[in-house]
Amino acid sequence: MTTTPTTADRTALVTGASRGLGHALAAELNRRGWRLVLDARDAGRLAGSVTALTHPELVTAVPGDVADPDHRAALAAAVGPRLDLLVNNASDLGPSPLPPLAELRPGALRHIIEVNAVAPLALLQALLPALHAAGGRIIDVTSDAAVEPYAGWGGYGASKAALDLLTAVLAVEHPELRVYALDPGDMATEMHQAAFPGEDISDRPAPATVVPALLTLVDGELPSGRYRAADLPVATGAAR
User: Which residues contact 108 (CB under 8 A, 6 or more apart)?
Assistant: First the structure.
């Protein structure tokens, strides 16, 4: 007989969780009492972000690069047999300032695609049994650059377009799971700042303002698909 897990029984893996949207989401899930496995490339920064959480004792921090197969295996081992939520949030912008496609080195493009598209798929493959055990959800963080031709954003946009299609096909192939692509919109993050070096981007929304919309995918019953945070209703009791 299958029972519905309580919040305390739920486990989420959030990549890129030391800053920006990943950290904001992790902070809210942690406040709710979820067990978390968190990843980021900077070990010191990840440790500091975990210490600042309400319940750091519920967190397993696994620093590393999602493009590294050994690191993905370590994440899967930390998760264990059951995973309720996988959030593929870690991303690589590419060179800064953003170069036009005519100047984007092929090696740089390969790395962007490796981090933003190949790694999320490989991580999901490693975690699929645990997601099946929980009837879990996958949220792949995408971008409007995947569907709009912004000058300078060709490499990043191409990687997110690939992620969009991978997400859509996975949703068709795994109807027993909920598989989402989420476009959070512009945010005041370090990665977004790197896209506009020397410019003031403080008018962009803080990542925490996107979390209530993201929680609509975590808590609600929306079908698998691609969603814009700006279009999602805010769930009752979402992040404050």
Answer: 94, 95, 155
Rounded to whole angstroms, the Cα distance separating 93 from 190 reads 10
Angle between helices 69-79 and 119-134 (to 10 degrees): 10
Active-site residue flag, 156 = yes
Choice among 150, 156, 180, 227 that is catalytic: 156
- pLDDT tens-digit series, residues 94-146: 998 999 999 999 999 999 999 999 999 999 999 999 999 999 999 999 999 99
Rg of the Cα atoms in the chain: 17
80: alpha, beta or left? (left if phi > 0; alpha if psi -120 to 50): left
**Cα 198 to chain centroid, rounded:** 26
Buried b (16+ CB within 10 A) or exposed e, 102-135: eebeeeebebbbbbbbbbbbbbbebbbebbeebe
Burial of residue 48 (number of CB atoms within 10 Å: 0-12, 13-18, 19+): exposed
Strand runs labelled E in 17-155: 35-38, 59-61, 85-88, 137-141
Peptide bond into 106 cis (omega under 30): no
CA distance 75 to 61: 9
- Global pTM? 0.91
